[in-house]
Amino acid sequence: MGSFVVQFPSKLRNFTVWASPNNGVPFDSPQSRGPVILELPLDKIRRPLLRTRSNDPEKVKELMESIREIGLQVPIDVLEVDGAYYGFSGCHRYEAHQRLGLPTIRCKVRRGTKETLRHHLR
User: Fold this and answer.
1) C-beta of residue 51 within 8 angstroms of C-beta of residue 11
2) Residue 51 confidence class, pLDDT cut points 50, 70, 90
3) What is the pTM assigned to this prediction?
4) How far does CA 15 lie from the centroid of its chain?
5) Which 8-state DSSP code applies to residue 44?
6) Cβ distance 88 to 79 under 8 Å?
């Protein structure tokens, strides 16, 4: 379990992010099960389905306003396979973070295999 403090220059808000799987096993352990909540850099999340549809600009704008005021309330879902992170949902939240210039985003990270990744790419 780790603790990180992140500062956003525009609002100078501090918050602590911690990660611990439900069963108390460290995330990097082969025994870890279930998702964990992590703050990940946007540039470390691969978006393989990015070009399949466009985001609703009004929804992105509303999310930007909300995130500016109260922060991200629902983490995006991310699949971790062999140390790489893949985002398949949360497109509007991800774009809102990009447009706000935020370096990281809160993610619910699940571990998967290459077969799981192939299934998501179908």
Assistant:
1) no
2) low
3) 0.71
4) 16
5) G
6) yes
According to the model, what pLDDT value does residue 53 have?
72
CATH class, range 36-121? alpha beta
Cα(116)–Cα(52) distance, integer angstroms: 19
For residue 54, the SS3 value is coil
If one compares 64 and 24, the residue with the highest pLDDT of the two is 64
What interhelical angle do 91-100 and 57-70 show, nearest 10? 60
Give the full edge-to-edge strand order of the sheet including 104-111: 36-41, 104-111, 76-81, 84-87, 45-46
Domain ranges of the chain: 36-121
Q: Which among 16, 50, 37, 49 is positioned nearest to 80, based on CA atoms?
A: 37
The amino acid sitting at 100 is L
Q: Alpha-carbon Rg of the chain, whole angstroms?
A: 15
- What is the C-alpha separation between 102 and 117, in angstroms, rounded? 27
Phi, psi of 75, rounded to the nearest 5 degrees: -65, 155
